[in-house]
TrEMBL record:
InterPro entries, sorted: LipA_acyltrans (IPR004960)
Known EC number: 2.3.1.241
Pfam families associated with the record: Lip_A_acyltrans
Protein name per the record: KDO2-lipid IV(A) lauroyltransferase
Cell location: Cell inner membrane
Keywords: Acyltransferase, Cell inner membrane, Cell membrane, Membrane, Transferase
Source organism phylogeny: Bacteria, Pseudomonadati, Pseudomonadota, Betaproteobacteria, Neisseriales
Species whose genome carries this gene: Silvimonas terrae
GO terms for cellular component: plasma membrane
Molecular-function GO term, any one: Kdo2-lipid IVA acyltransferase activity
GO biological process: glycolipid biosynthetic process
Amino acid sequence: MTAIFWLLSLLPLSWAQALGALLGASAARLPGRYGTRLQQNYLQAYPDSSSIQLREASRAAGRMVLEMPYFWMRENPMSRLDISPANFHETTDALLAQGKGLILLSPHLGGFELLGPLFAQYSPSTVLFKPPHQPWLRDWIERMRSRPNLAMAPATPRGVRMLVKALKRGETIGILPDQCPGGGEGDWAPFFGKPAYTMNLVQRLQAISGAPIVMVFAERLAASCAYHIHLKVLAEPLSTDRQAAAAHLNNQIEQLIACAPTQYLWGYNRYKRPRGA
């Protein structure tokens, strides 16, 4: 697997995205749950969408997957990218200066794989990921995605402790807030009008640390190596009511998705019911 990812990482980003678009469109047309879920989830959020938008959503999902080797394996994946606005990090620097750390929340939207390496250029960062069940695959992902100034924290008690320690050191942490948590680790809240089991970890981390929360995503632009960074600072702390906090987070995610609806990972099983939930 390492060899395959290494070979794919040698592709120019534009080639990787083009190949990903082809594979994504093909996967969505195959019989099975993935293509059906992608269409159902997209139409749940945007019922008046056209078939053209659905096809573009499938292509964007493929681009997202084929960007992984590029951002995981290259020593300096940011060197050839056009990131705008160029001064986006000034906002996060000002928040980090408060000394409470920073919680970055990015859903499965746009080029989210570039955000870890990007923010690690400006601040030591720890990013939460959902580990696979296979120990060898979990260890491989953690090793491939880690780099200087960037640590990977599995969604386990050990990983949560890593996040808390990073915040206490005044560093940045990154979380995919639309990742479906395990039973007992979330609350039901509407997501595009349908109940979705939503993590309460973000609320707990903010309550412990007092860290500010920033919603962020990297919109993939028409130029293959160009991304626009969207940042939104949540002005108020999350509610102490867990369900209200979950609903607020989902609303913020919806607002980000509205900036580029076809770039969301609609094939992700966002509405699944975890055991014990």
